[in-house]
Design goal:
Elements: E1 3-4, H1 8-20, H2 25-43, E2 49-54, H3 58-65, E3 74-79, H4 83-93, E4 100-104, H5 116-127, E5 132-135, E6 157-161, H6 174-177, E7 179-183, E8 197-199, E9 223-227, H7 234-247, E10 251-257, H8 261-264, E11 272-276, E12 288-291, H9 302-314, E13 319-321, E14 340-342, H10 346-353, H11 357-362, H12 364-374, E15 379-382, E16 388-390, E17 396-398, H13 411-423, H14 432-453, H15 459-465
Parallel strand pairs: 2-3, 2-4, 4-5, 5-6, 6-7, 8-17, 9-10, 9-12, 10-11, 12-13, 13-14, 14-15
Antiparallel strand pairs: 1-8, 15-16, 16-17
Helix pairs in contact: 2-3, 4-5, 7-13, 10-12, 13-14
């Protein structure tokens, strides 16, 4: 299950409860070391050089405990309780640079400004051009605020212990944290704490989507209507429909403006494509509707904007709104229990809130809450680094899969199409939150798998991988 995003004080409470229940620090350190080593092995190859920087606290103990599990690597341990005494050893260890540095200098207990000597030591590590794996928190970073104490290790990956600490999710921390991963099973037992912010784990999706019954047919899995595409932006409609196919609803009909219908229609066999007449209704046997991908041409007729508003206000079906269509939404109430989903990136979220992208990014959780509150308690998928899924109240889920190479045109169209393809299936709609979280996680996990395979993958490659990553793989 997902784990809560917690404070340093809450982490201490959890540890205290674990020791009172008979858990031991030695066993936890051992298991953290195994988790650190497993991540280090995934980041390196046979005979690669690994440098472990171990401080004097438990963070250093965790890093030291990884050493015995790094079989097949050339491992050097540098004891670094004193930055002056360790400086010469660091310089020697960085020439030539190792393939990986494991940062175990400081943990979450650091609560004061660093000395000039420590700042210099950390800056030398950062200037070494090495891939860094930080244990629990990048050394020098405040795990509550996301601010540093004068300097902080710039990690490629941070493997945090037990549960994410809230400061690691702040935008100010991103350059130091890198990719945030969670070592959830380290012997502390189940986290007894609650938080409105939850971190999604791959294991949350074991057995999801559920196995299909043998006696079903295409009518059992819904009929998705997509309204998408315009002159110069027809590719977005194609990507969204192809992504919806990966979710495997029973049927998909793509409604495209007549200006781009001749370009879009020949690209499909299974997806039905129809020219959208200038109508403010969308009659048909739909089970969900997606509006928005590629509806960006300036000459779009007003009827398509009115159709969006009417669907949002009146339809009893799940309605997913993406891209330009986000700008056309009314502030009206919607039918009771109607499913509404918005998928903005930070710039689109800023337009919805009539604010700046910088303010959205400064407090992404508040942005999700306020967008949902304004727009009929809709579900909001706020895209970007650590995509959020939530609404005006209840838990908000943070997604950890994905990488910066998703920053390609069409990536968002793929996500919205996949979400809509899942929501079109009546059997999946009992838990909308899980559907959205799964779609976001799978989208990112597919990108992670591609990135491990090749450096120059495209959105078209993402389409082929989407839906193919099992939850047990972790992405």
């Amino acid at each position: 299950m997902a784990v809560p995003v917690i404070s340093i004080e809450q982490m201490r409470e959890w540890e205290t409860a674990a020791w009172a229940a008979g858990k031991t620090e030695q066993e936890v350190i051992k298991r953290v070391g195994q988790a650190v080593a497993a991540t280090a092995l995934s980041l390196t190859g046979a005979k690669d050089r690994v440098l472990i920087l171990a401080g004097k606290g438990h963070n250093g103990d965790d890093a030291r405990a990884a050493r015995e599990h790094l079989a097949g690597r050339q491992v050097e341990l540098l004891e670094a309780s004193d930055p002056v005494a360790a400086a010469a050893g660091l310089e020697a260890a960085l020439n030539p640079p190792p393939d990986l540095v494991i940062d175990g200098l400081f943990g979450i207990g650091l609560n004061r400004s660093l000395s000039d000597e420590w700042i210099h030591f950390i800056e030398r590590v950062n200037s070494g051009g090495c891939t860094v794996l930080a244990v629990d928190v990048p050394s020098g970073l405040d795990a509550d605020t996301g601010q540093h104490f004068g300097a902080a290790i710039q990690a490629a990956v941070t493997l945090t212990v037990g549960a994410p600490k809230r400061g690691l999710l702040r935008e100010s921390a991103w350059p130091f944290v890198g990719r945030l991963e969670v070592a959830a099973e380290v012997g502390l037992g189940d986290c007894p704490l609650r938080s409105e912010i939850q971190w999604t784990l791959p294991a949350d999706f074991r057995g999801f989507p559920p196995r299909r019954a043998v006696g079903t047919h295409k009518g059992s899995y819904g009929h998705l209507a997509i309204v998408a595409g315009s002159r110069g932006f027809h590719g977005a409609a194609v990507l969204a429909a192809q992504a919806a196919q990966r979710a495997q609803p029973g049927l998909i009909t793509l409604h495209a403006p007549e200006s781009v219908y001749p370009v879009i229609a020949p690209q499909f066999q299974a997806v039905m494509v129809t020219p959208w007449a200038l109508d403010t209704k969308l009659p048909g046997p739909w089970s969900a509707v997606l509006v928005g991908p590629g509806l960006a041409a300036p000459e779009l007729p007003d009827q398509i904007k009115l159709l969006t508003r009417l669907l949002w206000r009146d339809s009893a079906l799940p309605v997913v709104i993406d891209a330009s269509a986000l700008d056309w939404l009314p502030l009206d109430v919607t039918p009771r229990d109607a499913v509404r989903v918005l998928t903005p990136h930070p710039g689109e979220a800023a337009r919805l809130l009539r604010t700046t992208t910088e303010r959205v990014q400064a407090d992404r959780v508040a942005a999700v809450r306020e967008i949902s509150r304004r727009y009929a308690n809709a579900w909001v998928v706020l895209k970007g680094h650590q995509t959020l899924v939530g609404r005006s109240s209840g838990e908000i889920y943070v997604n950890g899969s994905g990488n910066p190479h998703l920053a390609q045109g069409g990536s968002g169209d793929v996500l919205s199409g996949y979400i809509a393809g899942l929501l079109a299936q009546p059997g999946l709609r009992q838990d909308v939150c899980r559907v959205l979280r799964f779609a976001v996680w799978q989208h990112g996990a597919a990108a992670d798998r591609l990135q491990r395979q090749r450096a120059n993958w495209t959105v078209e490659d993402l389409l082929r991988e989407l839906g193919n990553v099992p939850a047990d793989s972790g992405g």
